[in-house]
Amino acid sequence: MSESRPVALDAMGGDHAPHEIVAGAVHAVRERGLPVVLVGSPRVLYEALADHDATKEIPIVRAEEALEMDEGALASLRRPRSSIAIACHLVRRGDACAVVSAGSTAGIVTTGRLRLKGQQGVLRPAIAVDLPTLPAPAVLLDAGANAEVKPEMLVQFAHLGATYAELAHGIEDPKVGLLTIGSEAEKGDKLVRRAHELLQGSPGITFAGNVEGHDLLTGKVDVITTDGFTGNVALKTMEGAVRYAFAELRQAISESRLARLGAAMQRSRLRELHRRLDAEAHGGAVLLGLNGTVVIAHGASRAQGISAACRLAADLSAAGVVNAIGERMAATSRSHRLWWSSHGGDRLE
Amino acid sequence: MSESRPVALDAMGGDHAPHEIVAGAVHAVRERGLPVVLVGSPRVLYEALADHDATKEIPIVRAEEALEMDEGALASLRRPRSSIAIACHLVRRGDACAVVSAGSTAGIVTTGRLRLKGQQGVLRPAIAVDLPTLPAPAVLLDAGANAEVKPEMLVQFAHLGATYAELAHGIEDPKVGLLTIGSEAEKGDKLVRRAHELLQGSPGITFAGNVEGHDLLTGKVDVITTDGFTGNVALKTMEGAVRYAFAELRQAISESRLARLGAAMQRSRLRELHRRLDAEAHGGAVLLGLNGTVVIAHGASRAQGISAACRLAADLSAAGVVNAIGERMAATSRSHRLWWSSHGGDRLE
Question: What enzyme category does the UniProt record give (chains A, B) (predicted)?
Fold first, then answer.
């Protein structure tokens, strides 16, 4: 809340860039009182801001290039002056508190690793998403930054996720679950069997054991650690299934006149519910483990989603998530090293 | 339909064994006209049948042992006289047309592989499940038989699933999708990138490219091939998400009196809908690639679910799914071998 540096908003990334991104910046500034700088093509952004009469409220930082949504991770290397790269640069220089982008996830992850670098002791940054459980969201990570991981990374994801759950959701001593295909320790593939061993008794982690796909939305654990391939498939499957259930329901409701009457009565509650399930409304995913706060908004985000992502980014920065992760990594690294080596873990770094 | 051999029903497997299993057998015999033999402890089963006045309608085959739900796959080796092993034996001897069990999936898979053996040319049997898409179900496999696979196995799962989609759902030339985390060919981990190469232009397969988690319920493809780890996580995540959406909905509906009225009006349609989404109602998963038809009913199955599983098993047996897979494997094996070796694929078996 005491943060006065602006959020660096990548104005060129996203399905509805730049217009919905600019509209989101205007919303964040006017409705939420958050300082924002737009990063992108000055001419285009100036015109878009003019549509909102906001050319004097929101500064623009020039970036002549942009990563296309369908460009692979390698494009990040070829475009040191892309809008996302410049946004990272602003954070690195201390001119912005956090980055928000609705651009391609692979592009954001690669550019973030390149420009902000991983925090000391962090093997790989991971994408954390909030699942709509009650009373607090459960944190799932990695949701797609790392398709291939080592068991030690799943332990680190647990640390990253636990720090985030503590800071963002106020959960003390978060319970960590390992996503796999059976609740017994010996279930799963080699990766998760080894990760299970490492997590068990791992210092600083409250390991609650294996969890399965149907546990993700029950609130059984506060943090779910998994590789980016499985996590991404699970997240998208969940979104698809909720969308499916609602579509089916909508059809069931509108099919008879009596039913339509019932639907009208329920409309207000259903609208509320839909909003809570909507991935966009709570701002986006967070890339944890870099020297800077990075929020990845949904590619399809419109103004409201972008504004919510700016709120999330500013809050995480104000809460000091990067420092908290740094301290946790430093505090556990010695005991981890000892513990891992005594359990035959590979030495990484 | 011309099948007159009974279904061999493992009466000792499942959360509600033996009573709900026996009740399911009685339902299958009386309501569906399907011949069934119960496999398990004669004393226990005789008593359970007596409760239904059915001791003369349904034969019992003795099995003195049973696999516990929480026993690992190795227990199958230690228990050659378990109810699931005896049920497989009846199929192998030609005394039953198919096996149905609601026991532990790992136990069924291991026992099935051991007692029925894999079909010639099949590297690994796979568990196929129907997803509730329209107009026809989409087939997802492997849903959990193989946590670790090779790329070539994903191609074979495509063949197994396509045969099943043709026979069970009447789909000509089924479209096959590969489950991964991006629609472009280069997305995913090493396994799926290699499988993508192999599937492309693979003889006998209509490959529709990569699919993601949110495509599973849209009916975009008819068959989804994936490893058993990812498939199991996706399936359980989907079940959990649909359950979650309904629980949220139910709560939204009952919270006010007006809403309750609306709910009453919709009750019949909602019930219908729930049934279609309910994994149990359509019988269960099918273990494909063995020398015999094996249906894995949901562990929590009650009588109706068991009866539906018996129907599915008898129908698949009558449709000749084992022969159809055998023919497809024989027909494609030569062209596959040539094609694989020219594309640098590993030679397996």
Answer: transferase
In a domain, A334, yes or no: no
* Sign of the alpha-carbon dihedral angle for A324, A329, A331, A336: positive
> Residue B36 and residue B28: Cα distance in Å, rounded?
8
Q: Taking a C-beta distance cutoff of 8 angstroms, is the pair B287, B108 a contact? A: yes
Both B88 and B135 in one domain: the answer is: no
Partner-chain contact B269 A248, CB within 8 Å: no
List the single best residue of A236, A256, A267 to mutate versus B (max B Cβ within 10 A). Answer: A236
Q: Which residue of A has its CA nearest to B149?
A: A189
Least Cα separation, residue A277 to chain B (angstroms): 9
Instruction: State which of B219, B251, B281 marks the end of a domain.
Output: B281
> What is the number of residues in chain B?
349
Question: Cα distance from B207 to chain A (closest Cα, Å)?
Answer: 20
**pLDDT digits 0-9 by tens, A82-102:** 999 999 999 999 999 999 999
pLDDT in tens, B6-63: 999 999 999 999 999 999 999 999 999 999 999 999 999 999 999 999 999 999 999 9
> Tokens for B92?
């192998």
The verdict on a CB contact (< 8 Å) between A241 and B246 is no
Report residue B301 as tokens: 């199955």
Report the pLDDT value the prediction gives residue B263, as an integer from 0 to 100: 65
A71 burial via Cβ count (<10 Å: 0-12, 13-18, 19+) = middle
The predicted model gives B297-302 an average pLDDT of: 90
Q: Which residue range(s) make up the domain with A165? A: 124-281
Residue B20 shares a structural domain with residue B49: yes
A117 burial (CB, 10 Å; 0-12 / 13-18 / 19+) is middle
Residue B346 is predicted with a pLDDT of: 53
Is the domain of B142 the same as that of B264?
Answer: yes
Q: What would the two tokens of residue A224 be?
A: 């779910």
Nearest to A181 among B147, B214, B255 (CB): B147
Say if the Cβ atoms of B230 and A229 lie within 8 Å: yes
Strands in A55-122 per DSSP E: 60-62, 98-101
